[in-house]
TrEMBL record, chain A:
This is Polysulfide reductase, NrfD. InterPro entries: DsrP-like, Electron_transfer_protein, NrfD-like. The chain crosses the membrane at residues 30-51, 71-97, 104-125, 145-173, 185-206, 226-245, 265-287, 307-326, 338-363, 383-403. One of its GO terms (cellular component) is plasma membrane. PANTHER family: PROTEIN NRFD. It is a multi-pass membrane protein. Signal peptide: none annotated. Gene3D superfamilies: Formate dehydrogenase/DMSO reductase domain. It is found in: Cell membrane. The keyword Transmembrane applies. Keywords: Cell membrane, Membrane, Transmembrane, Transmembrane helix.
From TrEMBL, chain B:
Keywords: 4Fe-4S, Iron, Iron-sulfur, Metal-binding. InterPro entries: 4Fe4S_Fe-S-bd, 4Fe4S_Fe_S_CS, ET_IronSulfur_Cluster-Binding, TAT_signal. PANTHER family: PROTEIN NRFC, PROTEIN NRFC HOMOLOG. It comes from Rubripirellula lacrimiformis. CDD domains: PsrB (cd10551). Residues 198-227 form the 4Fe-4S ferredoxin-type domain. The gene is ttrB_1. This is Tetrathionate reductase subunit B. SUPFAM superfamilies: 4Fe-4S ferredoxins.
Length: 412, 319
């Protein structure tokens, strides 16, 4: 393979690489075009719903002064977890020198990129005045750093995005140039991204647990719980992606990574359940002001039960998924569909638990103990689906860009 | 995706030149057409934004933070806001820029033995502060509480029937103008802050509407403008101040300001004037001769949610 010609510099060849990658990533079969068209259509529905929300005010959502954050922030919280969970591939690959993981580690990083993009979109969707977004940009705006946890979150999320863009961009670009990646240019960044993944989720947890007036969130266990569930949902998503990639492209060598990730989930899913259990014990055994939100979540309060079905669905999914993961047979090849099912359950379970099951009960009952219920409006669902569709588009394109690398693993 | 794409023999994936395939230009044309179609559809999808853009001017978009406006800029901004109120609401209003009076720290107190839950304060606040008429918004919420407890969980904000009821007492709650305000700490853009006279204010032209402060306030004191406030022209209170009761833009947070457009001009808050029982007391705690100072020194005084460390400048007492 050729290397970069003498008279060409990176400033010209990097854009070329991007262009070529995009060209290749938009080549595909009929099924691929159908998939992308569907995602585009969903994204457009979401974009339209959001534009209407901006034009008409957020009255189109079902949020209220009592429940001032809803589906958007719920999804944002979950997405931060998915982004952090993406690096679960990095830990075995680089810390334990798992050779097979090396070849697919990039998938976790691409997932992190797509997830962070979605995070940022969810935050923007939740703003009452998106036109004033620039107020949040340091220097030209007015940044309340270091007091506001939200400014911390803005920083760590964007840096995390840059770290992952650098690693993926660098590895794929070297591949394009036909060069061997130089470890000094990316291994330190990869190591940093592991620490950073933990920081994005910890800071996001601090957003909530720093609020003294919201007893449901005001627990030291919140950040560790976030991490545990992130390290379930991230790997679960990647396992399903790997199985799909294998089916659709016939790329080999993915079974090893799938097995490693399954083993990781076995541990993290149990840690997660253990933490949920100890939290519930503290809530219900101690009682007091803490318990009313938990009561509302699990059993309803004063006849108001909007969250109860969500909660029990999540518990059912999480427990079933945990049992499936613990069963040794899930690793066997002929039980693949079962593994996929377990991953989907764990994923949806974590989505409910970290989303609707975490954000909404923080507001119900309100600080004056009013019980105002919240069920997302159709507009909120449309915007949410639109952002998910966009995220999946980003992920699909990114994976397609990385396919050649996966097919012919380089010697890095 | 299928096994043939990218991996087809014609188009080795590791080839770094653009893929040379026979119908390359046709492909490019098709892709170009799809991209154009997509872009067109996107523009159509977000067209409602144009309507939103019409409602806000370039000057308002570029406006800096209140504390960074020069006197000249402030004058321009206020003139623009007055003109906008005329244009959108049909009302002639004057917007002042009332600043704290040096040596003043405002505090409020309510005599719970006297408050009978009639809700006149709630109504007065609604009118004084130009709240949206449809949603019947107010900065004050009154809880009906069973006697013998301070536990809000046992209270109700939606009580009805004649007041006062024998076995109840009434607890009005509004912004406590905390000395350690969590709402101010969390704001990512410093759109809300505490002024020297103790009043916590919001720059409605700087707030981005993230509602983090609403989540942080333990007293449910903040309100978000979920839609454009509607007030009939003849009901608009024309005596306004930049940081208080001017008609708020959609999509921002607002709160009680102890009626700073009145109190900084030596008047009393609207809720106090409206209270028929005399339960409300307001004043400058730094003034040793003031009534409020006497009450705080001689009565049994309570604050709400003391354990949170918010240090309210709002007190409750019993006779
Ligand atoms: S009562 Fe709420 S809004 Fe008022 S200063 Fe305290 S925290 Fe802020
Ligand atoms: S809603 Fe406005 S005032 Fe409140 S935290 Fe966000 S930007 Fe600050």
């Amino acid at each position: 393979m050729s290397s970069i010609p003498a008279k060409e510099s990176h400033t010209t060849s990097y854009p070329k690489f991007i262009g070529r990658s995009l060209w290749l990533a938009t080549e595909g079969s009929f099924a691929f075009y159908a998939w992308m068209t569907m995602l585009t259509a969903l994204f457009l529905v979401g974009a339209n719903a959001w534009a209407n929300q901006v034009a008409g005010g957020m009255i189109g959502t079902n949020m209220t002064d009592q429940v001032s954050w809803g589906l958007y922030i719920a999804n944002f919280t979950f997405m931060v977890g998915l982004a952090a969970g993406g690096v679960m591939m990095v830990i075995p690959a680089y810390l334990y020198h798992d050779r097979k993981m090396h070849d697919v580690v990039i998938i976790g990083e691409l997932l992190a990129i797509a997830a962070i993009v979605m995070c940022l979109m969810f935050v923007v969707a939740d703003l009452g005045r998106p036109d004033r977004f620039w107020h949040m940009i340091p220097v030209i705006g007015k940044f309340n750093f270091p007091i506001s946890m939200l400014t911390w979150d803005v920083i760590v999320l964007n840096v995390y995005l840059l770290l992952n863009l650098h690693v993926c961009g660098y590895l794929l670009y070297m591949r394009y140039l036909g060069r061997k990646p130089n470890p000094t240019w990316y291994i330190p960044v990869v190591m940093l991204s592991i620490v950073w993944a933990i920081s994005i989720h910890t800071v996001t947890a601090f957003l909530y647990c720093g609020l003294g007036g919201r007893p449901f969130w005001n627990t030291a266990l919140l950040a560790p719980r976030f991490l545990a569930s992130a390290f379930v949902s991230g790997p679960a998503f990647i396992i399903v992606s790997l199985i799909l990639i294998k089916k659709l492209t016939g790329i080999g060598g993915l079974d090893g990574p799938i097995a490693t990730l399954t083993k990781i989930i076995r541990v993290t899913i149990l840690i997660n359940l253990l933490m949920v259990a100890s939290e519930l014990f503290t809530e219900f055994y101690t009682g007091g002001s803490h318990v009313s939100a938990a009561k509302y979540l699990f059993f309803g309060l004063h006849g108001k039960t909007a969250l109860v079905p969500w909660t029990w669905t999540a518990i059912g999914l999480n427990v079933t998924a945990a049992l499936l993961f613990l069963w040794p047979g899930t690793l066997r090849f002929r039980w693949r569909p079962l593994l996929v099912a377990a991953c989907c359950m764990a994923f949806v379970g974590a989505w409910i638990e970290k989303g609707m099951g975490l954000i909404i009960p923080g507001f119900v009952p309100s600080t004056l103990h009013e019980i105002v219920e919240y069920v997302p409006s159709q507009l909120e669902w449309k915007v949410t689906v639109g952002i998910w569709a966009f995220g999946l588009m980003v992920f699909t394109i990114a994976i397609k860009t990385a396919l050649p690398t996966l097919k012919h693993p380089a010697e890095h | 995706m299928t096994a043939t794409e990218n991996g087809s023999p014609k188009q080795p994936s590791t080839d770094r030149s653009l893929p040379v395939i026979e119908n390359f230009t046709r492909r490019a044309a098709v892709k170009g057409a799809f991209a154009t179609l997509g872009a067109g559809a996107f523009v159509a999808a977000i067209s409602p934004l144009r309507q939103a853009a019409e409602n806000s001017s370039a000057a308002e978009f570029m406006q800096t933070h209140y504390t960074e406006l020069s006197p000249d800029q402030k004058g321009d901004v206020i003139a623009r806001l007055e003109a906008e109120t005329k244009e959108k609401y049909g009302a002639d209003v004057t917007i002042a820029d009332d600043r704290p009076i040096p040596g003043t720290k405002f505090v409020y107190a309510i005599n719970l033995s006297v408050c009978n839950g009639n809700g006149k304060c709630v109504e007065a606040c609604h009118k004084e502060n130009n709240h949206d008429r449809d949603t019947n918004q107010s900065y004050i919420r009154v809880l009906e509480m069973p006697k013998g407890t301070m536990d809000m969980e046992k209270g109700s904000t939606t009580y009805s029937g004649t007041v006062p009821k024998d076995d109840k007492f009434y607890l009005p709650v509004q912004c406590q103008q905390c000395d350690e305000p969590p709402c101010v700490d969390v704001c990512p853009v410093k759109a809300t802050w505490k002024e020297e006279d103790g009043i916590v204010v919001v720059d409605y032209n700087w707030c981005i509407g993230c509602r983090y402060c609403e989540a942080a306030c333990p007293y449910h004191a903040r309100r978000f403008n979920w839609k454009k406030p509607e007030v009939p022209a003849k009901e608009i209170n024309p005596d306004q101040s930049y940081l208080s009761n001017r008609v708020r833009p959609v999509g921002v947070v607002e709160k009680c300001t102890y009626c700073l457009h009145r109190t900084r001009r030596g008047k009393l808050p609207a809720c106090l004037e409206a209270c028929p029982t005399g339960a409300r007391v307001f004043g400058n705690i730094l003034d040793p001769e003031s009534n409020i100072r006497w009450i705080l020194e001689n009565k049994r005084v309570y604050i709400l949610k003391e354990e949170l460390g918010t240090k309210p400048a709002f007190f409750y007492y019993f006779d």
